Amino acid sequence: MRILVIARSRDPHRQAEALRAGLGLTLRGATVEVVVDEPLLTPLAVRSAETLRAFGHIVGAAELAAALERADVVEVWT
Prior knowledge:
Layout: E1 2-7, H1 12-26, E2 31-36, H2 43-54, E3 58-60, H3 64-70, E4 73-77
Parallel strand pairs: 1-2, 1-4, 2-3
Helix pairs in contact: 1-2
């Protein structure tokens, strides 16, 4: 299952929480893609993004329409 997490919030804490949520979804075996506007706003967001990328997941500004087509489930953080 591919889960798309869209982090649209410019609040630093919400952005970090969205990335942490994406990381948590991988613990259940999901493939995660996180669409987030760069730059990442907190050290926690940076660490979460680096960890997701290290595990082979996509994190960053992406073509939203294409990401939506790849997704089985979508979670939006505002």
